Amino acid sequence: MELKKRMKTCTNGHIFYKSSACPICPICEKDGKPTDHFLSYLSAPARRALLSHGISDLAQLSTWSEKEILALHGIGKSAIPIIKKLLETQQLSFKIEND
After folding, report:
1. How far, in Å, CA of 15 to CA of 9, rounded?
2. What are residue 9's DSSP bridge partners?
């Protein structure tokens, strides 16, 4: 089954094609990708997930458990090893969960 891509135009006038209902413009997303920040190591959906929950630095990220981060829409299993490595660079880690 082939998904039909639809032409879309973002508020900045970029024309792009997507087969999903996702409104994110890939051109704007690429232009807005940080280059010198821990978020630059993560995929766009992962960056948006963290930022939408007010997580903009590693110290804030360390107040969340791995399970909590993984539950966020946009965070996949491949992001966790990257995040762990980034946290370790600052001698930080995920919050320990009390079961």
Report:
1. 4
2. 15
Residue 14 CB coordination number (10 Å): 13
Q: Range of 76's domain?
A: 34-99
In DSSP terms, 8 is beta-bridged to 16
Q: Are residues 5 and 38 in the same domain?
A: no
pLDDT of amino acid 99:
60
Phi/psi for 38 (5° steps) reads -60, -30
Taking the whole predicted model, whether its pTM rises above 0.85 is answered as no
Q: Which helix (H) or strand (E) holds 9?
A: strand 6-9
Where the chain has pLDDT below 70, the residues are 1-3, 21-23, 32-35, 99
